[in-house]
Design a protein that fits this description.
By secondary structure, the protein is an alpha+beta fold. It has 20 helices and 23 strands. It has four domains: 170 residues, Beta-Lactamase; 116 residues, 2-Layer Sandwich (Beta-Lactamase), CATH 3.30.450; 109 residues, Beta-Lactamase (2-Layer Sandwich), CATH 3.30.450; 237 residues, Histidine kinase-like ATPase, C-terminal domain (Heat Shock Protein 90). Bound molecules: adenosine-5'-diphosphate (ADP). Adenosine-5'-diphosphate (ADP) binds next to helix 18 and helix 20.
Length: 670
Amino acid sequence: MNRKREKGSQESTSRALGQIGLLLKKAQLRDKNLGEALRVISEYLAASSSALFRLKQDDKPECSQIENIGSWPLADMNSLSLESMFIADSAWSDLKKRKIIHSHPVSKIPGHQPDFFFLPLFLDDHLSCIIISIGPERNRLTGEVREFLEGAISLFELWLSKMNLAKKFDDLINFLPYAMIGLDTHGNVTVWNSAVEQMTGCKGSRILGKGNYEYALPFYGIRRPAMCDLILHPDPRWLATYTEYRQEGDVVHSSIFTPALGGTGAFVTSITGRMRDLNGRVYGSLHMVRDVTQERQMENKLQSSESMFKAITDYAGLGIALFQKGTALYCNDQFGRLLGISGREIGLSDLVEAVDTEDRKEIQSRLESLSQGTEEGPLRLDLNLKVGNRHRNYSSYSQVLGYGGHPTICFVLDDTTEQKELAKKVRLNELKMYHEGRLTSLGIMAAGIAHELNQPINTIRVATDGFLFGRDEGWSLDVDEFYEGMEMISSQVRRISEVIRNIRNFARGDLEQEFEDVDVNRTIENVFSMIGRQFEAHGITVHKKLTNVLPSVKAHANQLEQVIMNLLVNARQALDGCNHGRKELWITTNKNTQSVYIEVIDNAIGIPDHSIDKIFDPFFTTKEVGQGTGLGLTISKSIIRELNGTIEVFNNKLGGATFLITLPTLGETK
Ligand code: ADP
């Protein structure tokens, strides 16, 4: 009889285990069929209900830490309070020792004397869940029952660890900051993490488990295969919609524009992998998507600002480099071109070595001091470099910047070779023009010089002829008269040599000489000594109003003479050309604390409005050929500008022109 019963119960044990095994084999033991598994246990134990409780890890007392996660049937369980299920605290310590507990607690419900089984389920060596079965029918914890329950516990623990693994995977996927989509081989969505929910605004509950390209809608607005599908089922037509496609084994890197993402569309890059099981069988795909729209926009902006920067520096022809510890962090093409270096890294030493002047060492140490902070920037240096076989002039600007926490020299190089040569040519032209102007002035002076010299020569001739006439007539020589005559001759000779000295000084004109302290009044007198008598001969009344005590100016005296000569000659020519009864010329000098003023005023015809802006232009003349070159005022202006002064012209109330020269003074008076 016992044997029969034993055999019968063995059969029911294996049947029950088989049923549990079936359920677990499906590996879908979730809430919905958990009740089924609990039913199998209940049936075997002839219990009326079974429930699975999970132990929560917090500080509350143990009996209130448990929560029901599955029941069969529910009604019975609800009628019992959890506290009432435990007879003693010792039950907890037994459960923690992996012991199955069979007890008969006193029920609070009258006439209810239930039979309890507590089954501990362990996860990672910790008590994780308890299955509690309650049956009205008395049962015993025989060896066979224990065996069955231990089997059931192992299977439930297996299920638990599978659930736990799935949770860990979910946690991991949801923790990732990248949007992840997973598909099975049928195209059903298996993964839709929180990042993709955030990116698309589409909840996983709406997408998970769905096929028919449901996942594509938030990205493309239509149902179409994305790379997560294409990696499993390639279709050239859809693959062609991707850019930057690159495959490495089971992994594909690709980019695409997703028109529906974010409302206005977005540019995304993705990494997609074919997933394989332990046997290498493909079971689905994982697709990691990154919205790179902003990055691309930034990249584009950066690229365009970089190319703008490059265009500007290339257009300006500037060489720009950043040196850190002597090596170039950045160096534009022009910098290499200016140093004649291409195809290799450029160092600050390349620049120093190219210096073709004796101050190379000094330049090197100044640059070192600049980077060490002992010399304060910016450092502006004119460099003479040997580039290949040629010598080039560069102007450089260097400044130290803190870049990446290290002193970095920003070096800007500008080729000034042509500029310098041009300046030299301009200077030569200026000198040539100045010289031409002097020759013209000398030509104009020739007539005046004749006047200047004729008069004393005539006086001398009158004196000497008088004496010779007396001798021929046999007159006795009056000694007093003779000495008087000699004195007059001597004074006229002095006058002649003064004129000659002034002319010589005027003609010499060495521009390279240092400026000297010049007395403006005296300069004017010198000019009058050379051409003063011309005015008389041309019927012009000259009014000289020279302020007595005038400070000196720094100038070349003969240059200033040339300016005054130009103005006087122009005035004389203008007065010659008009039919005034009274032709007059005023020359005045004045001063204030900083300046000396020279004014040349005539009452001729003035300068017409249409030419007043042009008279200082080179070769502007209204005079006939042989009379003017159009250079006089140009040269005068350039001379005055060199003295840091100004020359202005305006038409005066007398109907003529007024030229006003302003010169900075030296401060002292003479
Ligand atoms: P040039 O005397 O050889 O013509 P300038 O440069 O000295 O050259 O003078 C340029 C022009 O300015 C003259 O041709 C003349 O038309 C005008 N100009 C200069 N000074 C006077 C003046 N005092 N009155 C009227 N016109 C003048």
